[in-house]
Every structure is written in C-alpha cells, then in structure tokens.
Amino acid sequence: METTHRVVVDDARSLSALEDDSVDLVVTSPPYPMIEMWDDLFTTLEPAIGDALEAGDGQAAFDAMHAELEAVWDELERVVVDGGIVCLNVGDATRSLDDSFRVYPNHARVLEAFEARGFDPLPDVLWRKPTNSAAKFMGSGMIPPNAYVTLEHEYILIFRNGGDSRQFEPGADRRYEAAYFWEERNRWFSDVWTDVQGELQDLDLDLEDAADLRERSAAYPLEIPYRLCCMYSAYGDTVLDPFWGTGTTTLAAMCTGRNSVGYELESAFLEAFDESVADIPALSQSVGQARLARHKEFVSQRRDEGSDLEYDAEHYETAVVTKMERQIQFREVTAVDPLEGGAHHGEQAYRATHEPLSLE
C-alpha cells in the first residue's frame, strides 16, 4: 500500500491545488483570533486588523480576523466530499484592550460560520491544555468579585459536510481493517479528553529565524490528529490540513495509512519536516505496537474480572469484544521517499510505503 503526502506553500484562502470533492477529512488548528502571537499574521492579511487593535477596538479586530478565516471555510465547503468530516482545534482568547478585559469566543464564531455554509455540527471534544499562568485566576487576586478564571481547555469542533454520512461499498476492507478497538472507541468518543496533554514540539531548525518559528508553531500533540484520523476516515482516504505548521497532521496521516495535503505560508517549516521524515517508519511502528499492547493489557484485565471475550482478531493473537474488530490490521510505514515535480508551484511531496504492522 502506498500513500502520497503533498505540502503546498501557498495561501489557504484559495485551495487552488485541490479539486472539488477531493478531501475526505480535514484536521487542522488555525491561528486563533485575538491571541497576540497571531496579530502580525492577521494584520499582514488585512491591514485594517492592525488599525483596529491599535485603536483598542477589539470587536472590530475579532470580526475582521474571522473574516480572513472564513475565506478558508468557503474553500472547505468546495473541496470536502459530501458526508466528509471537518475537525477543527480552536481555543477562545482573553485579552485586555482599551483597559477592558474580556473573552473572545472563537469556538462560537466558528460554529456559526460552518453552519452558515451547510455543515452539520456534531458533538465536540474538549481537551485540557497546560496553562501559561501559575495562578488559577486573573484580576483582583483574593478579593471578589473582579477575578477571572483561566482558559485551560481547547475545543475540537467537529462538522459533517451535509446531512448524510459517507457511503462505502459493502464489506470494504479498507474500512473494516481501519477499525479501532472497543476500549479505544469508549475513550476516543468521549466529549472530554483528559489523557491528552499539550506539548511544545522541538523544531530542529538551523535558521536565523528559528526562534520565531518555534514561537509560531503552536503545534498540537500528535495524539490529537492521530485519533481524529482513526475516528473519522478509512485507509486510503485523503486528509487536509490548511494550516499545516510543523506537519503534525501529515505525520498522523502517514502513521494511519491515509493520504494527506497541507497548506503552509512559511516554507521554513517544510525544511524542518524534511529533516524528520527519516524518523517516520520507527514512529509509525511504535504507535501501532503501543495500541496493540494496550489492547492486550485490556483483554487481560477483562479476563481477570471474569469477562469472556467471544471473538478473536484475524491478524493478531488477541481476543476482541465485537465482530467489527476482527479484521483490524494496523499499517506501518516502511519507507518515505520524496516525489519530484509537484503539480503546484512551491509544492513538496512524498510517497509513503505501508506494510501490515510487524510484531517483531
């Protein structure tokens, strides 16, 4: 099995390298409006944003920032297949402008924007991130009533393009082999993820602007896009990240046997990713083996508790809870090779070769 992975250095407000109805799943984390680290980016896209911030008009800046993001949402409406899923990691922002402190509800604005474009909202996920503050509040300290709670969670907003679910041919191997274990389903499809921790990714950049790129990466943990690829796509599907950054979604797509496309404005991120490609085979193998090991531990615990599991997996020496798990077969990456001559200017592409997970 082979998958292809493209990264286009371009503006995601026009996904011109993608045809209509060519994407099965979107997994992304956009720049968050009203978070100061993104002010310069938004102002570059629309100078009026900088003017509003300088004037202390937070609402005008908030609206204008979301208008830039909504140009990307317009393109997602075009490229995502009917029944395809969009998973969008976003956090709200707190900020003081013109001596007034308030929250800017990014998740609510994104919900409105996707509904207006015909996407059906599905139940979302909250995951807790480390707070940047040692204190649990801001404002007047120990004296009520003018203190404010800190934001320690982010949203994974989930949308389906249109009212109908995707359809597959009966008994499709690429769907049944991509099944997840019963206990994974129970953990992954919870609306609160307490077992995912935020992390800073160490970008190996030998560049003058490396410090700035590290500050701007704002990467989410690999566990998040990995889970979402497993939950909402099948082997061979195409996953898009229009805000590619350090390429975490591409790593997840490679590890899960999906194709991927990323859009990124900063070409230096591609240089960093190119250097880490050699580690992907080992990463994909370790992730798959860890899942299988955790499942075998689950089976052992269930049997110790007196539960009898009726079914056996076809490809691994383990019991499973349901019929739908029997065909599970993990993929590991055995090689990643660069592809020459991308179809789009500034495109970088890779071919990943996958084999069934080795248990050695």
Automatic annotation (TrEMBL):
<comment type="similarity">
    <text>Belongs to the N(4)/N(6)-methyltransferase family. N(4) subfamily.</text>
</comment>
<keyword id="KW-0949">S-adenosyl-L-methionine</keyword>
<keyword id="KW-0680">Restriction system</keyword>
<dbReference type="InterPro" id="IPR017985">
    <property type="entry name" value="MeTrfase_CN4_CS"/>
</dbReference>
<keyword id="KW-0238">DNA-binding</keyword>
<feature type="compositionally biased region" description="Basic and acidic residues">
    <location>
        <begin position="342"/>
        <end position="354"/>
    </location>
</feature>
<feature type="domain" description="DNA methylase N-4/N-6">
    <location>
        <begin position="23"/>
        <end position="273"/>
    </location>
</feature>
<dbReference type="GO" id="GO:0032259">
    <property type="term" value="P:methylation"/>
</dbReference>
<dbReference type="GO" id="GO:0008170">
    <property type="term" value="F:N-methyltransferase activity"/>
</dbReference>
<dbReference type="InterPro" id="IPR029063">
    <property type="entry name" value="SAM-dependent_MTases_sf"/>
</dbReference>
<dbReference type="Pfam" id="PF01555">
    <property type="entry name" value="N6_N4_Mtase"/>
</dbReference>
<dbReference type="InterPro" id="IPR002941">
    <property type="entry name" value="DNA_methylase_N4/N6"/>
</dbReference>
<protein>
    <recommendedName>
        <fullName>Type II methyltransferase</fullName>
        <ecNumber>2.1.1.113</ecNumber>
    </recommendedName>
</protein>
<keyword id="KW-0489">Methyltransferase</keyword>
<feature type="region of interest" description="Disordered">
    <location>
        <begin position="339"/>
        <end position="360"/>
    </location>
</feature>
<dbReference type="GO" id="GO:0003677">
    <property type="term" value="F:DNA binding"/>
</dbReference>
<dbReference type="InterPro" id="IPR001091">
    <property type="entry name" value="RM_Methyltransferase"/>
</dbReference>
<keyword id="KW-0808">Transferase</keyword>
<dbReference type="GO" id="GO:0015667">
    <property type="term" value="F:site-specific DNA-methyltransferase (cytosine-N4-specific) activity"/>
</dbReference>
<dbReference type="GO" id="GO:0009307">
    <property type="term" value="P:DNA restriction-modification system"/>
</dbReference>
